[in-house]
Design goal:
The protein has about 300 residues and is mainly β. A five-stranded mixed beta sheet has the order 1-22-21-20-19, with no helix packed on it. Strands 2-25-24-23 form a four-stranded antiparallel beta sheet, with no helix packed on it. Strands 3-4-5-6 form a four-stranded antiparallel beta sheet, with no helix packed on it. About 0% of the residues lie in helices and about 55% in strands. The N and C termini lie far apart (about 40 Å). About 50% of the residues are buried.
Length: about 300
């Protein structure tokens, strides 16, 4: 295993309370990310300093988003899954598989290579294992992929589309499943990687073209890369402890972006001793896989 203490650059001057979901839009050559607590979504065009931001009204958290057809985004917010049009700022309800259960909010989501959305829920006390990983098709039909987690994070999909990775954060493990275009059922659940308390909580995930899985360790101040067989390949230290989510971007998909947050107990960005809340960037020598578009 290789340790890397790299010279990270800061991709944006914004210091979010908890930056999440860095995702690259190839057509726009733009980096999108969110502030979970904003609830706000940001967009920064490649090579420009200006950041556009949209705060979503009548919601308290923005768990995640994916790109959707028609230039829209599908947001996972308190009220469910909603389509958001950055041009007009309008949101349209799409689906709400969790049904507004008390004490639950939506969290991380990703599309698989077969066009389906995998979105998890999060129990606000992080103690009660009521979190569910849902599979949602473009017609809005939802089914349960797996359940029984206080906090559903990740997910990510292998380049060939056949393996779904999922962070059981409170359980301090990454799970892997077999996934098929013929069924929304997950198969062959297994533990892909496990972590100690000192390493932090496995949070956001992303994949590279070689099938390497990248995991942000929340509270651990690192991003780790695993080989497809589960072996730890390398670890990248960041200059802040709250590392939430990695994602590749840039015109050739070679820049690793890592979204971070403020340290526990900090209530204002000006009180943060580290650079927590920034989105960091690093050239790692690996390339990411472009995210699909949800064909609503």
């Amino acid at each position: 295993m290789n340790w890397h203490t790299m010279h990270w650059t800061i991709a944006s001057p914004i210091r979010d309370r908890l930056a999440e979901s860095p995702m690259w839009h190839p057509g726009e050559e733009a980096l999108y990310w969110t502030d979970w607590y904003g609830p706000t979504i940001h967009r920064k065009l490649w090579g420009q300093e200006r950041v556009e931001s949209w705060t979503i009204p009548n919601e308290t958290v923005l768990g995640s988003f994916v790109f959707a057809s028609g230039g829209r985004l599908l947001l996972a917010v308190d009220s469910g899954l909603v389509l958001f049009d950055p041009g007009t700022g309008q949101t349209t309800p799409f689906a709400n598989p969790d049904g507004g259960r008390e004490g639950m909010v939506y969290n991380d989501s990703k599309l698989d290579r077969f066009g389906r959305l995998w979105v998890g829920t999060y129990e606000l006390t992080e103690q009660d294992p009521r979190g569910i990983l849902y599979c949602v098709t473009p017609d809005g039909v939802a089914s349960i992929g797996d359940s029984g987690f206080p906090s559903c994070n990740g997910p990510a999909v292998s380049p060939d589309g056949r393996t779904l990775y999922f962070s059981d954060s409170v359980g301090r493990r990454i799970l892997a499943y077999d996934v098929s275009p013929d069924t929304r059922k997950l198969a062959n659940r297994r533990v892909f990687a496990a972590f100690t308390a000192e390493q932090g909580l496995p949070d956001g995930l992303t994949i590279d073209t070689e099938g390497g899985l990248w995991c942000a360790l929340y509270g651990g101040g690192t991003v780790q890369r695993f080989l497809p067989d589960g072996m730890l390949h390398s670890s990248y230290a960041l200059p802040c402890p709250v590392t939430a989510a990695p994602g590749f971007g840039g015109p050739d998909m070679s820049t690793l972006f890592v979204a971070t947050g403020w340290s526990p107990g900090v209530t204002a960005a000006t009180d943060e001793r580290h650079d927590g809340g920034a989105v960091f960037a690093l050239e790692t020598g690996f390339r990411g896989v472009p995210e699909p578009v949800f064909a609503v």
